[in-house]
Structure formats: structure tokens, C-alpha cells
Design brief:
Blueprint (H helix, E strand, L loop, with lengths): L6 E3 L4 H13 L4 E4 L5 H6 L7 E4 L9 E4 L2 E5 L4 H6 L3 H6 L1 H9 L3 H6 L2 H7 L5 H8 L3 E6 L2 E6 H4 E3 L2 E2 L6 E7 L7 E5 L9 E9 L5 E9 L6 E2 L1 H7 L6 H15 L29 H30 L2 H4 L1
Parallel strand pairs: 1-3, 2-3
Antiparallel strand pairs: 4-5, 5-10, 6-7, 6-10, 8-9, 11-12, 12-13, 13-14
Helix pairs in contact: 10-11, 11-12
The structure holds flavin-adenine dinucleotide (FAD).
Flavin-adenine dinucleotide binds next to strand 2, helix 7 and strand 10.
Length: about 325
């Protein structure tokens, strides 16, 4: 099928892009941003979205790029997943290796070459790797609109399945991961490789000199409208030994606190009720309760993986610990 007719502009600056979007909104025309097109183009082809205007961000060099700054990293919205996957920046690899690992899990190589980090966040699939990590790692999202710039945290930005806080005329310009979390891990399960997973979990543990957990981050994705950060489960782990019983209790608590989730497949947010994402999980394989149980199992694995990574980092910094 072919898309319904639309006008197309390729602005030279982010400000110009916002001007086009704002003018369309004023005229009552529907405008959409085009980034890598990996989610939007299939929707256009199937006429599930019918914008009057496409504003292509693909050629805005200043919106792309990865910059390690202070303790964290800033990623321009139009940075393709593959740049993170193959990025050789040693600072980034050391501080947040999970970013490259998560990028490598997305779709197939052509999807990773074209699809962008900002596009994934704006598309807001509840199981998208970037959405999960944004929630886990307290990401800060920068939006540019007719009234200037604003910065939101991930829970404020991700409002529901395919639903964000982006207002008419606004674009996402960057996401910043402000903390180094060298032990962060993301684990996911999908029925079909090369598509979005059915459920995912991520964790980042910090261990003290006595081997106990001094800080924990936990987030799960599955049947929920957005990825869920599990603060109560994190508190359960703080001070505990990084052992399977503690991980099992925390995973149970995390999923219980997240709730049973909505119906599998859920509402369709910004794209209308007939929305069926060709990049999404193949669908229909699991009830929402089963997806929650799957997320619990994945979280136990993520916690164990993160503990292993944190132990290895501790040994690397204190070689004498090997002998102890
Ligand atoms: C076969 C296949 C498998 C896939 N597997 C996965 C997977 O495993 N994990 C995963 O996370 N994704 C997956 N995807 C989706 C892919 O990662 C997309 O790249 C991503 O969802 C959207 O990024 P994009 O740059 O292509 O955005 P586009 O498709 O261009 O846009 C997507 C949406 O975001 C909006 N948008 C884009 N950029 C901005 C911006 N800067 N500001 C405001 N709005 C914006 C668009 O208007 C549109 O509504 C898959 C896609 C395919 C086709």
C-alpha cells in the first residue's frame, strides 16, 4: 500500500523544524516528524497515520552525536542506534556499557543503521530498549518547541503506550544519561528475533567494600503502558548480599508493585485504535499476567548479571580482593 499524499520539508536547523511544525499546528494541519522512518514509514504505507506534512530531521547534523560529559553521556535525538552499538568511545564503554549492548539488541542491522535513539523514545513503545534504560538511569530528555527548550525526566516524558509529553510543534533534541552505571544490565525476551521484545528487565547494582549492595536501580517492561521503575524493590536490595534469594524477593516485589498491567497489546496512544506496529512483538502469545511473570524471571537474571559485573569491577579495582 502507498501512503496518502503529504507535503515534505527538510529543514536545515532544529529551529526551522519547530517553525514548520508550529505553523502546521496553527493551520490545523497534522504534521509529523520523520527521523529514521523505521516505525513511521510502515505506518504511513498502511495509512494508519495520514499527516498533511512530514518534517524530516534526518539531515540535521547538530541533532546527531554522542558526547560523554562529566559523569554521563548526551545523545543527540537523530543519532542512529548503530552509532551507540559500534561507538568506540572508551569513556562511554567504561561508564555505561549497557548503552552499546542495548543498541545491539534492537531489530536487525538495517533498522539499527537508520532508526534513531530519539525516534525510539518519541515512538514510546513500552518494551523499547531506550525507553527502559531512560527509566532505569534517570535520563533527562530535552524538548525544543515554539516556547523554547524544556527538560523532562523519563517518567514525565513517557505518558503511556505510544504516548509522550511532546506538544504540538515540539521535537525531542537530545537525551542525557546523567550517571555512570558500569554494572547496568538489560535482559529481554522476544518470541521473534529482530522485533521488539515481549518483556524486558534492567538492573544496575553497586557493591560496597564488604560485598553488600549499596545502591540498586531496577526497571521492568512488559504488559505495562510504560517501563516501570521499582523503587520499593530497590530499597529491599540496599544493604543485602547479592544472592539469588535477595534477587528473587526483589523481582517479586518489583512486579507486584508494577501491577498486573493492562490487556496484552494495550491502547495505541498517538496512532489511533487500529494501530498495529509491524516492528512490535508478534503479539497474542502471552496474557498480561504471563508477561509480568516473564518480566520477573528476566529481572532475576538482570540482577544476577549486574552483580557479576559489579563484582568483576570491584576485583579489577582491588586486585587483592582476588586473594581474599
Ligand atoms: C523490523 C523492525 C524491528 C524493530 N525492532 C526494534 C526493537 O527491537 N527495539 C526497538 O526499540 N525498536 C525496534 N524497532 C523500531 C526502531 O528502533 C525505530 O528506529 C524506532 O522505533 C523509531 O526510530 P526512527 O528514527 O526510525 O523514528 P521514525 O520512524 O522516523 O519516527 C517514529 C515516531 O517518532 C516521532 N519522532 C521521531 N523522532 C522524533 C523527534 N526527534 N522528536 C519528536 N518526534 C520524533 C515520529 O514523528 C514518529 O511518530 C524496530 C523496527 C523495525 C522495522
Amino acid at each position: 500500500m502507498r501512503p496518502a499524499p503529504f507535503s515534505y520539508v527538510r529543514p536545515r536547523t532544529a529551529g526551522e523544524a519547530v517553525d514548520h511544525l508550529a505553523a502546521a499546528a496553527r493551520d490545523g494541519r497534522e504534521a509529523r516528524v520523520l527521523a529514521g522512518g523505521q516505525s513511521l514509514v510502515p505506518l504511513l504505507n498502511r495509512r494508519l497515520v495520514r499527516p498533511d506534512l512530514l518534517v524530516d530531521l534526518g539531515r540535521l547534523p547538530r541533532l546527531a552525536g554522542v558526547l560523554a560529559d562529566g559523569t554521563g553521556v548526551r545523545i543527540g535525538a537523530t543519532t542512529p542506534h548503530a552509532v551507540l552499538e559500534h561507538g568506540a568511545d572508551p569513556v562511554l564503554r567504561h561508564r555505561l556499557p549497557v548503552l552499546a549492548e542495548a543498541a545491539a539488541l534492537i531489530g536487525q542491522p538495517p533498522v539499527r543503521a537508520r532508526g534513531t535513539v530519539g525516534g525510539s523514545l518519541a515512538h514510546a513503545d513500552p518494551c523499547a530498549e531506550w525507553c527502559l534504560l531512560a527509566v532505569l538511569l534517570d535520563a533527562e530528555l530535552t524538548l525544543l518547541g515554539p516556547d523554547g527548550t524544556r527538560t523532562l525526566d523519563a517518567p514525565a516524558f513517557l505518558r503511556g503506550r505510544h504516548r509522550t509529553a511532546l506538544r504540538a510543534g515540539e521535537i525531542l533534541t537530545a537525551v542525557r544519561f546523567p550517571h555512570a552505571e558500569p554494572a547496568a544490565v538489560l535482559v529481554e525476551y522476544g518470541v521473534q528475533t529482530g522485533r521488539l521484545p515481549e518483556a524486558a528487565a534492567s538492573a544496575a547494582l553497586t557493591l560496597g567494600a564488604d560485598g553488600r549492595i549499596t545502591a540498586a536501580r531496577i526497571a521492568v517492561a512488559g504488559p505495562w503502558e510504560v517501563p516501570v521503575r521499582a523503587h520499593a524493590a530497590e530499597a529491599l536490595l540496599t544493604g543485602a548480599r547479592p544472592e539469588p534469594d535477595a534477587f528473587a524477593a526483589a523481582a517479586r516485589a518489583a512486579v507486584a508493585a508494577a501491577g498486573a498491567g493492562g490487556p496484552s497489546g494495550g491502547s495505541s496512544g498517538a496512532y489511533g485504535d487500529s494501530f498495529d506496529d509491524s516492528s512490535g512483538p508478534s503479539g497474542g502469545h502471552f496474557e498480561s499476567g504471563e508477561l509480568a511473570s516473564l518480566a520477573e524471571v528476566l529481572l532475576r537474571r538482570a540482577l544476577a548479571g549486574s552483580a557479576g559485573r559489579a563484582r568483576a569491577a570491584a576485583v579489577a579495582h582491588r586486585p587483592e580482593a582476588v586473594a581474599a
